[in-house]
């Protein structure tokens, strides 16, 4: 076998795709350099022929030398469940004892000889024959997470193995409000962008509850949010919600400081906040057009520190809140401790050197969570670690209260959260789970219409083999933490359950390729957690999506994600509303795309020119012409549905304004689709031009900073909001 043959076979076993088709159908062959780089990022040496052969043999033979796989996912309908048991052929007559420990502790056991089982596969390794049998479980364990164990004897030695057995339901959860012809609508809110008369310059969890109150009165049934994942308290300007420190915990800047019970009791905190100088700071923060994350964090953390000290002195030892905090620490366990320990360490090293951006540049011993130096730091700074645990506790309590309020108000779906595709490589989750990630590689996307140079999001991907070796525990934990208070969860880049586009270390998006993931297993777990958390699932399936993904998601009841901008006929005309799928979430636009007003005016194209984001002048001109056609097509789509506002024609002399009436008509057009869920952006209702995020930029554009133009308290009387709510109520009916 040549080096190239060994390399190609090794890549196939590791899920590295040798070629792929882009959004225009052009096929790209993956270079040898990219294959080497991605294997190296997975921790696999294959640069030489000997190394490639050795790695190949290990991956080809390793699964045959294991009595049981680390995990097996089966469907509840698969009865009996067939457990894969692999033994040398010479062991066919040996007696094995099996044991099944059900999720709730009940145990069952029995015995079998491999010769009595059905043969699934056979393989000879260095003259030793191995046989994979299927052991049919003689009972149905029910949906959930169970443990299956085997014990036997070989050459006088006792051998054994255990694995996780996951039994999944057939479908994800569907809320009753969506049964039959049921549909809901609601706003998709960037929480940080919400202005209010009482917040501290950034939208918070109390604002979220107020939005729910407003939506209930307007007839909406769902409230969508940007990801609320934990970011970086030491660096408030690390603001992208899609580049979190951890997806298991929350962004503490979303806290309403004055709603924390300790605030009412802490005299020092109350005096500081009531001080005219502090009130002037808050007034200035509210007045800013862009969120000043640095100043917001300084104000909030200053008071939060006082609240924790008060809590520690008056509640922690004997108070009821102290007991509740200890219960929270115990429930969240080691992940919470590691999150808080990371934040205390990062705060410490950043104070010594502001250039320290994350754990990869900490002093070497501290880069390893199990090191004696990390243990010593924890022993020396227990209060600082506990401070960050306290913040997570308060964030959990406030988000949980928002979730409860959505149910009390009778919102049919309620809180709709967003799950980022991965985590920042310099953050807490990557530090605590380094072996799970290909830390030097990045997740991204090949070039497409809106990102002509491709994308590298700078987020490390999970290594598929290591994820499976962990019995999918990281994926399970991520779903649980993000579904627990939500009525719906949007999975960003849902095609990542089947494949992710990996950008090699030091390479560009054009150098990347796709890496495959165990789609069927991950979908089974998704269905299980969806049912357990009573959480609807929406899969963001924009861009280059394999047919296999949509075919797999549809029978599970996962909603597709459809945007007006992209829903087209073959000739480019906007899709007729009746031709949208019912099993979908539909919207005009989203945070990564132009607002309605910005799209209509071509403002996004002007910004891209200013920032030199077009690969050529020719491409820019093509997109300007295409946008003009799209304006005409949209006017014709409105005319076709009888929705053109009075005085507006499909033959305008000049580009008409994006008036509230035109924006409302476009939303009604979208509402006429049969899609189960419709989301609207407040930016579009309130006539904002700038989009929340411009992909392909960082500091060149005020991403994730722009506030809404209207205070939350004024939404309920704003004629644009009321008119649109009335129109959508007529189209969709009250939720």
Quick structural overview:
39% of the residues lie in helices and 18% in strands. The protein contains 23 helices and 24 strands.
Structure description:
With 735 residues, the chain is an alpha/beta fold. The protein has 3 domains: 3-62, no CATH class; 77-168, Sandwich (Immunoglobulin-like); 176-732, Glycosidases (TIM Barrel). An 8-stranded parallel β-sheet has the order 21-18-15-12-11-24-23-22. Strands 3-10-9-5-6 form a 5-stranded mixed β-sheet. Helix 14 (473-483) packs parallel to helix 15 (519-533). The chain starts with a helix and ends with a helix.
Secondary-structure topology with pairs:
Blueprint: H1 3-14, E1 19-21, E2 27-29, H2 32-41, H3 49-61, E3 71-75, E4 82-88, E5 96-101, E6 107-112, E7 118-125, E8 128-136, E9 144-154, E10 157-168, E11 184-189, H4 205-218, E12 222-225, E13 229-230, E14 246-250, H5 261-265, H6 267-274, H7 276-287, H8 293-314, H9 320-352, H10 372-380, H11 382-408, E15 414-419, H12 428-432, E16 442-445, E17 455-459, H13 464-469, H14 473-483, E18 488-491, E19 499-503, E20 513-516, H15 519-533, E21 536-539, H16 547-556, E22 560-563, E23 584-587, H17 596-601, H18 603-610, H19 617-640, H20 660-671, E24 677-680, H21 682-685, H22 712-715, H23 719-732
Parallel strand pairs: 3-10, 11-12, 11-24, 12-15, 15-18, 18-21, 22-23, 23-24
Antiparallel strand pairs: 1-2, 4-8, 5-6, 5-9, 7-8, 9-10, 13-14, 16-17, 16-19, 19-20
Helix pairs in contact: 1-2, 1-3, 4-11, 6-8, 9-11, 14-15, 15-16, 20-23
How big is the Rg? Answer: 27 Å
Q: What structural class is derived from the secondary structure elements?
A: alpha/beta
User: Helical residue percent?
Assistant: 25-40%
N→C terminal distance: 64 Å
CATH topology value of the largest domain? TIM Barrel
Helix tally equals 23
User: What gross morphology would you assign?
Assistant: globular
User: What is the highest CATH level, the class of the largest domain?
Assistant: Alpha Beta
């Amino acid at each position: 076998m040549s080096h190239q043959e060994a390399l190609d076979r090794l890549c196939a076993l590791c899920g590295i795709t040798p070629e792929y088709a882009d959004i225009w159908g052009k096929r790209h062959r993956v270079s040898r350099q990219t294959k080497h780089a991605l294997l190296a990022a997975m921790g696999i040496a294959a640069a030489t022929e000997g190394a490639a052969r050795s790695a190949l043999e290990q991956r080809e033979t390793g699964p045959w030398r294991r009595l049981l796989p680390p995990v097996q996912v089966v469907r509840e309908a698969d009865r009996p469940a067939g457990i894969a048991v692999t033994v040398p052929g010479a062991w066919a007559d040996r007696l094995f004892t099996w044991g099944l420990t059900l999720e709730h502790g009940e145990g069952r056991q029995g015995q079998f000889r491999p010769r009595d089982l059905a043969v699934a596969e056979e393989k000879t390794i260095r003259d030793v024959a191995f046989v994979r049998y299927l052991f049919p479980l003689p009972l149905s364990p029910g949906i959930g997470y169970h443990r299956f164990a085997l014990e036997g004897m070989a050459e006088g030695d006792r051998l054994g193995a255990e694995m996780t057995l996951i039994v999944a339901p057939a479908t994800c959860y569907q809320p009753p409000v969506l049964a039959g012809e049921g549909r809901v609508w609601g706003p998709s809110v960037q929480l940080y962008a919400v202005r209010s008369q009482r917040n501290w310059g950034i939208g918070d969890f109390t604002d979220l509850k107020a939005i729910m109150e407003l939506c209930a009165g307007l007839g909406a049934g769902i409230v969508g949010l940007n990801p609320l994942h934990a970011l970086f308290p030491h660096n408030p300007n690390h603001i992208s919600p899609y580049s979190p420190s951890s997806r298991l915990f929350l962004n503490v800047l979303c806290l309403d400081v004055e709603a924390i019970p300790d605030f009412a009791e802490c005299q020092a905190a109350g005096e500081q906040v009531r001080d005219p100088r502090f009130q002037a700071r808050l007034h200035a923060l509210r007045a800013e057009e862009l969120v000043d994350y640095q100043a917001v964090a300084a104000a909030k953390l200053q008071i939060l520190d006082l609240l924790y000290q008060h809590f520690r002195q008056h509640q922690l030892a004997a108070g009821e809140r102290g007991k509740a905090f200890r219960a929270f620490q115990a429930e969240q366990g080691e992940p919470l401790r590691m999150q808080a320990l990371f934040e205390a360490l990062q705060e410490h090293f950043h104070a010594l050197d502001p250039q320290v951006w994350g754990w990869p540049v900490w002093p070497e011993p501290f880069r390893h969570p199990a090191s004696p130096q990390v243990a010593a730091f924890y022993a020396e700074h227990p209060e600082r670690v506990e401070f960050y645990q306290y913040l997570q506790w308060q964030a959990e309590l406030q988000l949980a209260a928002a979730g409860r309020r959505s149910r009390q108000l009778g919102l049919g779906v309620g809180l709709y959260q967003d799950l980022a595709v991965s985590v920042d490589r310099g953050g807490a989750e990557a530090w605590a789970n380094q072996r799970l990630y290909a830390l030097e590689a990045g997740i991204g996307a090949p070039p497409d219409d809106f990102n002509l140079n491709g994308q590298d999001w700078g987020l490390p991907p999970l290594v598929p083999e290591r994820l499976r070796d962990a019995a999918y525990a990281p994926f399970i934990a991520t779903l649980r933490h993000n579904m627990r208070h939500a009525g719906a969860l949007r999975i960003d880049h849902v095609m990542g359950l089947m494949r992710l586009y990996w950008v090699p270390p030091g390479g560009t998006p054009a150098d990347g390729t796709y890496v495959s993931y165990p789609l069927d297993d991950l979908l089974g777990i998704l269905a299980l957690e969806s049912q357990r958390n009573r959480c609807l699932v929406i899969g963001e399936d924009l861009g280059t999506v394999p047919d296999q993904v949509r075919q797999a998601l549809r029978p599970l009841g996962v909603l597709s994600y459809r945007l007006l901008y992209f829903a087209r006929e073959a000739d480019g005309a906007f899709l007729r509303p009746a031709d949208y799928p019912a099993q979908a979430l539909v919207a005009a636009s989203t945070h990564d795309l132009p607002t309605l007003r910005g799209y209509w005016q071509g403002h996004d194209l002007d910004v891209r020119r200013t920032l030199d984001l077009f690969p050529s002048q020719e491409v820019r001109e093509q997109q300007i012409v295409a946008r003009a056609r799209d304006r005409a097509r949209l006017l014709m789509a409105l005319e076709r549905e009888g929705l053109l506002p009075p005085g507006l024609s499909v033959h305008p002399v000049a580009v008409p304004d994006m008036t509230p009436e035109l924006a409302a008509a476009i939303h009604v057009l979208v509402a006429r689709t049969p899609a189960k869920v419709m989301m609207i952006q407040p930016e579009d209702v309130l006539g904002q031009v700038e989009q929340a995020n411009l992909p392909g930029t960082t500091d060149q554009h005020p991403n994730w900073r722009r506030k809404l133009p209207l205070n939350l308290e004024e939404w309920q009387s704003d004629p644009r909001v009321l008119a649109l709510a009335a129109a959508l109520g007529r189209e969709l009916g009250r939720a």
